[in-house]
Amino acid sequence: MEKIQRILVATDFSSRADRAVQRALQLAAEHQAKLNLLHVLPVFSLETFKHLISETPLETEQRLYNHAKAVLQNKSEVLAGEGVAVEHHVAIGRAHVEINRYAKSHYADLIVIGDQGETFVQELFLGTTASKTLSTGNLPLLIVKQEPKGQYKHVLVPVDFSRSSLEALDVALKVVTGSSIHVLHAIEMPLGRKMKQAGLNAKSIDLYRDKMLSRAREAMEKLVADHVRGDTRVTCIIEYGRAPAVIAEKTKFLDIDLIVMGKRGETELDEVLFGSVTKHVLYETPCDVLVVNPVAGSPSSP
Fold it and tell me: Which region holds residue 123: left if phi is over 0, alpha if psi is between -120 and 50, else beta?
């Protein structure tokens, strides 16, 4: 992603979706990018209304479509008044399918969506639209959880040095402009307890711990040299602990308002929907999260 030129934001007209629209507007203004505003009219809603009113199915569909288009056009005009180039479109179908389809056909560099909307009631996790858009798409997806309060100020990028996490860092460097960027690596000691149970003494465990720290420092030095040399926005942090817990602690301590991370990494073995660490972060942290899919053909790609 050389430069952000097009941002797609999906809305279901809920208050949570409005947060995503406002964040997308701010990013579009920041990058002088075009903003595409998309509303997907669910087929389920159309079928329901067809059985409840006396109009013909075609009249019902046209009425609902016209209403959604009018609301979307009004929102587009308001957004355009902020000095951003805006296009809008109403699609009919399954939300995540149409979002990814529209993003691909219009060459979007970034998709923005709310963490939940009025049409996602009783959904576990983030709602089917957000999770399915993420799991089936291949573009960076920004999930907005908080009311935008200006530009992002403090950004956290967890890395495990996999290709996926390094791509997330590259995206973070392009998406955020004036923010401080904290690159975090958590050193997990998965064998620590077993080593003690096996009768290894404290000195042996400390040597193992020091070796892991040395490797992490070398990897972080290479990361800086390859990706962020001379970028004064970036600071690097290495901590011991389970990645989800360390990320949550640093998010609070550093007053993070955006986390940027890869969808999966080499240390994330339990791939059900997407990486287990990513799931923890999406579910447990209060700030916005930008999830980056591995580039096709990279080592961590499926």
Answer: beta
- DSSP secondary structure letter of residue 243: H
Give CA–CA dist 275/262, Å, rounded: 8
- Using DSSP bridges, classify how beta strands 110-114 and 141-144 pair: parallel, antiparallel or unpaired: parallel
Residues in the chain: 302
User: 137 near 103, Cβ under 8 Å?
Assistant: yes
Residue written as token pair 């007053």: 255
Q: How far apart are CA 38 and CA 105, in angstroms?
A: 13
Q: Is 95 in contact with 133 (CB distance < 8 Å)? A: yes
Rounded CA-CA distance 277/292 in Å is 13
The gap from C-alpha 59 to its chain's centroid, in whole angstroms, comes to: 38
* Nearest-angstrom CA–CA distance, 38 and 17: 11
Backbone angles phi, psi at 241, to 5 degrees: 140, 170
Residue owning tokens 């999930």: 143
Strand partners for 238:
185
Give the integer Cα–Cα distance in Å for 274 and 88.
Answer: 30
Q: State how beta strands 234-240 and 86-92 pair.
A: unpaired
CA distances from 3 to 108, 174, 182 (A): 11, 7, 21
Could you read off the pLDDT of 67-112 as tens digits, one per residue?
Answer: 899 999 999 999 999 999 999 999 988 899 999 999 999 999 999 9
Which helix (H) or strand (E) segment holds residue 206: the answer is helix 202-223
Note if the pTM is more than 0.90: no
Separation of first and last alpha carbons in the chain: 20
Q: State how far the Cα of 61 lies from the Cα of 270, in Å rounded to an integer.
A: 42
Q: Which two tokens stand for residue 206?
A: 């400390």
Do 98 and 38 contact (CB within 8 A), yes or no? yes
Quick check: helix, strand or coil at residue 259? strand
Give tens-digit pLDDT for 28-44: 999 999 999 999 988 75
> Is the separation of the CB atoms in 2 and 32 below 8 Å?
no
Radius of gyration of the chain (CA): 22
